[in-house]
Write a structure and sequence with these properties.
single chain; alpha+beta; four-stranded mixed β-sheet; 2 helices; about 30% helix
Length: about 70
């Protein structure tokens, strides 16, 4: 019974990881992440737009774009 409980806890922890993909401007000054690649907030990006997980975007200090709230 204990191995099943351990597996269940591991599965629950892994399923809590947010793998949602978002878009960010790969610039040191960019502060937002975007849910859509064609968000108007990305129009000013003069660098490369990249796709990352929402967790990675937040680790980089990005917050949700105001146009998508």
């Amino acid at each position: 019974m204990k191995p099943f409980l351990l597996f269940a806890l591991l599965f629950i922890n892994l399923s809590c990881i947010d793998n949602t993909q978002v878009y960010i401007c790969d610039s040191k000054t960019a502060k937002k992440y975007h849910l859509k690649a064609n968000c108007r907030g990305l129009r000013n990006c003069t660098h490369k737009v990249i796709k990352v997980t929402i967790d990675e975007a937040q680790k980089r200090g990005k917050t949700l774009c105001g146009w998508e709230k």
